[in-house]
């Protein structure tokens, strides 16, 4: 690695102040710090520092997303062959999904990072590592059939309007990946809902089965909950939906990685699940006689369908856009969970409430924090 | 018996290079230096000039704003050089020491009362042993503190074992506590480690258990007698209590401390009997063979950067030498590793909780905006919202700073927050800016 290091050191002066390529310093620095943890030392204050940095944090989240990604790839193939009624083994299914999902991921990273680099060079601030996570979150929240140009548009939207205009990672107040998804959902509804969840690219000699329905579990839920898949199928993830969100197990593995490493907030995750479950119970208690009303949906099932688990584990916990105080996190999580269930049950036009619910409470998170801080101050005064 | 307090939050940083409990006397160098910059927020005005003869305990300079407060010479001898920096700022007063020190004698009153004690401390030029919260500065003379605090244990990385130090100087320590008890009108609060066998001659004993920073006096004050606006609390290091006790026993200033020299770069980490102002050059040369190292007066969390030709500072009770981390590491942020120290569990070192580390001064990443939340709160055992307080400081919002508890903290209390910070934010620097702002504007 000495060769690489020496090369970087030799070209470095060009990017320093006064160098030929001074303007491109953020881009150079991004590559340099990606390859090497820089040789900077502490100057004042503490002399030693924890080995954790922002890159390590972000790569840990990416690692936590890998189970969802792998399962999602497999499930894309699984759903595809299911729709055609074809036999296929595990590897076939996985490889089918792999080649479908990989371009989405690649486009998301290439476009998003490109925008980020350009913005950093223009604005002269360092390229932040936040997009390492965002770039993977975006494709995982999309249907596999989404066109690549739309992913690119979403990535541009999320980087520019979701983050950079506010000052970059750390200053944005809404989850950039969800913002991208919301943008695409409202801008191109035809590509983001309805029969888009399974890749139906033609298979020679096969036709789509008559019994195939392109609807996710969130649709029968609104008309007749008895048509839904079993809870165990939903838990494992044998269902249609966005690429990364179907398997609750994969999400829970990710959650375990985040919580054990200390990167993700268990407080937020538990309170989102808690809020959803409690609201589900409340709905059950208030449900009308008619047995097929959405209010009858078992509370636990609310946590298994759609993007609930994925949102709770990977989206609501975004440390920048969630509430920052300990008590605030609990309130924030409970509200997200409860509101998601409320949306699902009472708004038939919009069954997947998780995304909007998180975005909504992203906006309220500073207010929640403010109230927690004020009550802390009041208590301090009383104590004094 | 006072309170018994269990603290759960905090973190013990385990480093290589702990001092063995052996005391070596190091050869006393001829040249001593007193550094006015050791004392926060004073404007030194010299009493001596080059060529003057001084006694141990006689005044070298005073605070221009508070001329009653004088600062002592640790040894007797001749002032040989006054080292100045930019704008003629006095950096060092160098003294060529006598072979055996001659001491200035201060008459000690037979009956100890608060006023007598104050007079003796001022006359003996030892007022600077006292420090006050808020701001951790030398207190003013007129003020009556709510209480005086002494912590008898230090939980910082590789910190001196103060019970060992006190044991060696028990008589002086007891005398010191007795004097402080009078000075505080009976409100002397002494923090001890839970299970400590230390017997106190005076004061209320408060027991603390838990990881660092439970030994910090700021944390102890917070749990025993929190500071409100307008109140002050005085505090001393345990070793300063010993100096104070010695002074009231003999009328002389014996500027001696038991200082452990610690850290992974030190060949035989042990205690040295050192005098304030003493040259450290020889000690560092004997104990440290590497050249790419960081010399620190104090501990790795809140100590000051020193160098090989430095002199022992007035408040220094520990020396640390660790490697500099000025080398780039290929993919250091990505690779799994069990060799790195981290409070997070993103490195596998968390599976070995008792391992001791050889940590260098690398920042392990670049400074970023606040992203992670809840990190600071894990290591601050105080009812204070650290992130919100820091943001109030950055914004210069004085009212908010006061409401969120700035009077209760000093840099060292939030040092662990700075250590764990993923965004590599210079927490202690921000805290000092906030305290300075409060002192001038508040």
From TrEMBL, chain A:
Its cofactor is FMN. Keywords: Cell inner membrane, Cell membrane, Flavoprotein, FMN, Ion transport, Membrane, NAD, Phosphoprotein, Sodium, Sodium transport, Translocase, Transmembrane, Transmembrane helix, Transport, Ubiquinone. Its EC number is 7.2.1.1. InterPro entries: NqrB, NqrB/RnfD. Pfam families: NQR2_RnfD_RnfE. It catalyses: a ubiquinone + n Na(+)(in) + NADH + H(+) = a ubiquinol + n Na(+)(out) + NAD(+). It is found in: Cell membrane. Its main location: membrane. GO terms for biological process: respiratory electron transport chain; sodium ion transport; transmembrane transport. It comes from the Bacteria. One of its GO terms (molecular function) is oxidoreductase activity, acting on NAD(P)H, quinone or similar compound as acceptor. It is a multi-pass membrane protein. GO terms for cellular component: plasma membrane. The chain crosses the membrane at residues 58-77, 98-124, 136-161, 173-192, 242-261, 268-287, 299-317, 329-347, 353-373. The modification FMN phosphoryl threonine is found at residue 216. Belongs to the NqrB/RnfD family. Composed of six subunits; NqrA, NqrB, NqrC, NqrD, NqrE and NqrF. NQR complex catalyzes the reduction of ubiquinone-1 to ubiquinol by two successive reactions, coupled with the transport of Na(+) ions from the cytoplasm to the periplasm. NqrA to NqrE are probably involved in the second step, the conversion of ubisemiquinone to ubiquinol. This is Na(+)-translocating NADH-quinone reductase subunit B.
Automatic annotation (TrEMBL), chain B:
NCBIfam families: nqrA, PRK05352.1-4. One of its GO terms (molecular function) is oxidoreductase activity, acting on NAD(P)H, quinone or similar compound as acceptor. One of its GO terms (biological process) is sodium ion transport. Residues 259-306 form the Na(+)-translocating NADH-quinone reductase subunit A C-terminal domain. Pfam families: NQRA_2nd, NQRA_N, NQRA_SLBB. It comes from Arcticibacterium luteifluviistationis. NQR complex catalyzes the reduction of ubiquinone-1 to ubiquinol by two successive reactions, coupled with the transport of Na(+) ions from the cytoplasm to the periplasm. NqrA to NqrE are probably involved in the second step, the conversion of ubisemiquinone to ubiquinol. This is Na(+)-translocating NADH-quinone reductase subunit A. The keyword Glycosyltransferase does not apply. It comes from the Bacteria. Belongs to the NqrA family. It catalyses: a ubiquinone + n Na(+)(in) + NADH + H(+) = a ubiquinol + n Na(+)(out) + NAD(+). Residues 5-97 form the NqrA N-terminal barrel-sandwich hybrid domain. Its EC number is 7.2.1.1. Composed of six subunits; NqrA, NqrB, NqrC, NqrD, NqrE and NqrF.
